[in-house]
Design brief:
By secondary structure, the protein is mostly helical. The protein has four helices and no strands. The two termini are 30 Å apart.
Length: 121
């Protein structure tokens, strides 16, 4: 599963750089907020995979819902003249760093457990 995530990420990056797709600059802020939420969902999926709790339906619905919510917050805040996008940055950015910290700990634990089992033999 992890290989599929990496292949999908690399494929998406290659497609993004190779295709000449443009969008109006006024949408860039909303797209950025959606991307932040999507990256948070991807890192959360990696964490749940390492914990053995991954569920594809939860990932897909969370991915879409979080991206739409972040974009809508930015749009609504723009219409109201209130920087509501800070809520998306704060929540999704905070969760992103927390999930990365947990992933780091899980990987270190797996490496240490593997090294300890090899040393005992």
């Amino acid at each position: 599963m992890l290989v599929a995530m990496v292949v999908g990420l690399v494929g998406g990056i290659l497609l993004g750089f190779s295709l000449d797709i443009s969008y109006p600059t006024e949408y860039s802020f909303y797209i950025t907020m959606g991307l932040l939420a999507a990256i948070d969902s991807i890192v959360g999926a990696a964490r749940s995979y390492l914990e053995g709790k991954y569920n594809n339906l939860i990932f897909i619905t969370g991915f879409v819902t979080n991206a739409i919510l972040a974009g809508l917050l930015a749009y609504l805040g723009d219409r109201l003249g209130v920087p509501l996008y800070y809520a998306a940055i704060f929540v999704f950015g905070g969760r992103l760093f927390q999930n990365l910290a947990v992933i780091r700990r899980l990987l270190i634990d797996k490496i240490l457990t593997k090294n300890n089992s090899i040393a005992k033999k």
